[in-house]
Prior knowledge:
Elements: H1 20-38, H2 49-54, E1 59-60, H3 65-71, E2 75-76, E3 80-85, H4 91-105, E4 111-115, H5 122-127, E5 136-140, H6 153-166, E6 171-175, H7 183-186, H8 197-216, E7 219-225
Parallel strand pairs: 3-7, 4-5, 4-6, 6-7
Antiparallel strand pairs: 1-2
Helix pairs in contact: 6-8
Amino acid sequence: MPKKKTNVVEMAEPAKRESLSKRLQNLDALFEEASKKCGVIAGRPTKSQAVMDRMTFKFFATPIAAVNEALGGGLAVGRNILISGDHDTGKTGFCLATIGYQMQQDPEFVALWVESEDSLDIVKAESLYHIDLDRFYCLSTRDPDTKKQVFGAEAIGNLIMAAIRENDIDICVVNSLKMLVPMAEASKNFEDDTMAVQARFNSKFMKKAVPLCAQRNTTMVLVQHYTTNMNAGMYGNQLAA
Length: 241
């Protein structure tokens, strides 16, 4: 009886790797060329000061030592920061206190404040938080008399980007992101369909803000409120179960 043939799979030998020094040398050359041609920041921190600078966080302190310790030094420079909480929990006051504190520390510190919910008291900001109004730019989305929204989030977003791109803005506070409403939604009735208009604006805004703030070393603080499910009772209160 003939023997049954068996399939023998021969394992390929692993390819011989280059030495570590050779691989690092090749990668250094690759990323150096990419940096020159494309203007990207790439490479090893030990070989590129630009990489070291970009990957190192810098901070400016808030007036609250415990917050600075928890955040590793304060608010990160050139980053986007979300401050979220319930209504009337001190979010606006914290931002104003931080701006006033930094203005006292740095005579060239400039702030941009975007107000969309009419919670900024400029007199209190100057007297209580020591804001230097000559270095404090305000941008409101509402008409001062009627309180109606006269600028959509799109126009405000373009103005914010222009201010950061063309000038040295140290901090930009958006108070609040939830109230920065696109004109397509603000100008229509409740029955008109504007589904996801706000979400699409937020997505576009962040795609532009994140790289621009990193490039210009501008800290952007986005104030946001907690959103609760108003219909939670319809499905039962899970906490009470």
